[in-house]
Design brief:
single chain; 5% strand; 147 residues; mainly alpha; 41% helix; Arc Repressor Mutant, subunit A
Amino acid sequence: MGRAAAGTATVSRIRSRLCRGRDVVDGVSIELSMPTTNSSPSPFARRVVAVVRDIPAGRVATYGDVAAVCGSPRAARGVGAVLSGAINEDVPWWRVVNRSGALTIPAHLGLRALQRARLEDEAVRFDDRGRVDLELHGWTAPSDEVD
């Protein structure tokens, strides 16, 4: 089986498991909730979560776009750090991609395939290299949202 066919098979398996309400991908349990801590999120983290919640279904933003809307245009990695702790249904983390439209979430836990499956469920299309067309699916924050 070629690499593309294997990826498609994995996405199909994940999609069918999601439809059955499972949170296990390839035998690995995925925690889909925000970790509980005794400290409250930073103001930056709260802004990131608010901005990502505003990205509509069928659209994506880049980590840098989210950072810029949050008032910290050089904090793309910080956005990634915030979202890595927000893998849950309440925060649509799957709608954030890198600046070239690639999915960069760690693949070893099946999260990259999960991200692709969720985006495909929202009618986001991928090119032959597995990248989202940012011209077609890119999201621009409303001007009143930009800090």
